Amino acid sequence: MSKLGIGFIGCGGIHTAHAPSLVDNPDAFIACAMDVNPEAVKKHQENYGATCGTTSLDELLAHPEVEAVVVCTPTAFHKEGVLAAAAAGKHIFCEKPMSLSVADCEEMDAAARKAGVVLQLGFVRHFCNEWLKLREILQDGIIGRPVSWRQMMSSSGPAVPWFNDAKIGGGPFIDGCVHNYDFGRFIFGDASNVVTDITRMKSDRTAWDTGTVIVNYGSGDQQVICWSWGLPGDGLSSGFFHDVLGPEGFISFPGGNTLTVTRADGVQEVEFEADDGGIWFRRQMAHFIECCKTGAQPEAGGKEGLEATRIAAAALDNGGRPTIVTL
Ligand SMILES: NC(=O)c1ccc[n+]([C@@H]2O[C@H](COP(=O)([O-])OP(=O)(O)OC[C@H]3O[C@@H](n4cnc5c(N)ncnc54)[C@H](O)[C@@H]3O)[C@@H](O)[C@H]2O)c1
Fold first, then answer.
1. Does residue 121's CB lie within 6 angstroms of at least one atom of ligand 1?
2. CB 91 within 8 A of CB 115
3. How far is Cα 157 from Cα 228, in angstroms, rounded to an integer?
4. DSSP state of 3
5. How many domains does the chain contain in total?
6. Taking the CA of residue 125 as centre, how many other CA atoms within 13 Å lie in the half-sphere pointing to its CB?
7. 300 C-alpha vs ligand 1 centroid, how far in Å?
8. Which domain holds residue 22?
9. Widest pairwise Cα distance in the chain
């Protein structure tokens, strides 16, 4: 089978997680790299060797060897890349969040369906052994149902300013937490409502940076997400803390290659194969290439991108102040 030609739209931070997966993959190659910043294009070519580099989206999409694109632009610009790629008949891998509004996501999903191209979202946790093991344990009911999954994280947030611009990145309650919303849906099914109280600790930004979002699922399960990108400095982080409480026990995460299940009848270490760094991204990209070649539905597609954005949009509704939004 011939190698799939890939074009990058955006060659910044996250593209450096995807490009090595393509350089190593025997079924694909990087045909062209595009970024509005010529320095980013040059750096891509030096590091990953695409022979074609351009600052023009039209030029990238007209390249005869580009059959699929990987959209790695800041979130507010995903839509333009996805719509143009779909119109040009290219398969699409789009980084998460899909976009900042539900209406944008609906348009993007509809465009990919109409064009008959693959649209995969960058929900990389679907390719991580630890997250998949957690899903298996919860769905097996080892700690009973419904559960309450508590997730806490605080940090300085990304150093690149657009992440905290409400109109470009949207801040942590969409940019970071969209992974949590998506994985919650992947385990529990559709959300039924969202309860939010978020605020802003830093005044130099337009996005909300600190607070709590509770997502209630139709299954009766709940996620309680307490996040902040409001810590000072660059790179300060409290790390992640999460656990899952159920009527028959709780799950904790000691790190390494185990999850701990504690029930009234004892403590059980559940082992899984630990992942090496970067392997999630490699599995994710291999899956995308496979879908492009076979026409299979991706693990996390436009529908998943749209529904995760629906939860984020509900969380950010009413300016993030206390509200209950029925979905
Ligand atoms: N899956 C993950 O875990 C993960 C991690 C980090 C970032 N992301 C997502 O990936 C996307 C990009 O994030 P990043 O960290 O790479 O950002 P970044 O700022 O490091 O890189 C973005 C690149 O896009 C370029 N760009 C801006 N506008 C463009 C346009 N209209 N057309 C083409 N290029 C354009 C910029 O010049 C820059 O090189 C965001 O949506 C972000 O949320 C996902």
1. no
2. no
3. 8
4. P
5. 2
6. 20
7. 19
8. 4-123+279-299
9. 63
Angle (CA) 276 189 119, round 5°: 60
Whether the per-residue pLDDT at 275 is higher than 70: the answer is: yes
- Residue of 59, 93, 94, 95 best suited for mutating to test ligand 1, as the one with most atoms within 8 Å of CB: 95
Same domain, 192 and 90: no
Residue 136 lies in a domain: yes
Same domain, 60 and 114: yes
Chain segment 111-163, per-residue pLDDT in tens: 999 999 999 999 999 999 999 999 999 999 999 999 999 999 999 999 999 99
pLDDT tops 80 at residue 321: no
CA dist 326 and 308 (Å) reads 15
Length of the chain: 327
Cis peptide preceding 146, ω within 30 of 0: yes
- Whether 49 and 89 map to the same domain: the answer is yes
pLDDT at residue number 254? 83
Distance CA 215, CA 213 (A): 6
Residue 281 has pLDDT above 90, yes or no: yes
